[in-house]
Amino acid sequence: MTDGIPQVVLGIDDASQSVVIVEGSTEVGSLAALVAAAPGLLHPDAAATMARVVAHFAAGTDYRVIEDPLGYAASYRAQVAGEDPGAPWRAGVYRLRDHGTPDFAAITAPAYQGTRLVFFAYSAPIPLPYRVEVDVGDAGVTLGPDIFRAMSLTPFPPSGETPAPNPQFVGAVGVPVNPTEAERAARKAKPPLVVDDVGDDDAPEE
């Protein structure tokens, strides 16, 4: 039904309110009015279009719908790779490294579950992901910024972090805490270390 998806244009009216123009003529200012004017937007193939409309009514241009999850993940990783992990935090500088990385596998393209629309979006200043679930068939549904639920992020390790020590060893010499029988035998087989006070230019001991 791709060809039959109603054409919509997102806009702002004279009162700075979000509006949608349907098929180039009908202007609506609410989700309920939009569904009444263009019920075709409830078709599964129209999920991405409806997601853009919902995001527009809820928060204007503050969020962008993620329609290509793989492309979003690639872009996110590329931005992280381009950030200096050793740079200190600075106010007003947006860095993904200061936040973390999401579970990209959980991010999917917009889709309907009955009349419930589920989609993901990212914020405009910095592309952090959010999940949205809205029952677009509910005429009384309220759309606002609170419909965007931030996804959990896994923090990046601090720059220059020292790897955790192997719990089997202590100190810098790597002596096992609980050596095995084979390790004990190997130690006993080693010749004793002879230390004297000869200089570097002395002949080695026989």
What does this structure look like?
- This protein is of the alpha+beta class and 206 residues long.
- It has one domain.
- Helix content is 20%, strand content 19%.
- The chain has helices spanning 31-37, 47-59, 69-81, 181-189, and strands at residues 8-12, 18-22, 26-28, 63-65, 111-113, 116-123, 129-135, 149-150, 169-170, 175-176.
- Strands 4, 5, 6, 7 and 8 form a five-stranded antiparallel sheet that branches. The protein has a three-stranded antiparallel sheet with strand order 1-2-3, covered by helices on one side.
- The longest helix has 13 residues, at 47-59.
- The chain is elongated and about 90 Å long.
- The protein starts with 7 loop residues before the first strand and ends in a 17-residue tail after the last helix.
- The model is unreliable at 161-166 and 168-177 (pLDDT under 50).
What are the SSEs and their pairings?
Elements lengths: L7 E5 L5 E5 L3 E3 L2 H7 L9 H13 L3 E3 L3 H13 L29 E3 L2 E8 L5 E7 L13 E2 L18 E2 L4 E2 L4 H9 L17
Antiparallel strand pairs: 1-2, 2-3, 4-6, 5-6, 6-7, 7-8, 9-10
Characterize the biggest β-sheet: 5 strands, antiparallel
Spatial separation of the terminal alpha carbons:
91 Å
* Percent of sequence in beta strands: 15-25%
Helices and strands: which structural class?
alpha+beta
Overall geometry: elongated
Please count the beta strands (DSSP E, at least 2 residues each).
10
Global mean pLDDT? 81
Which blocks of ≥5 consecutive residues have pLDDT under 50? Answer: 161-166, 168-177
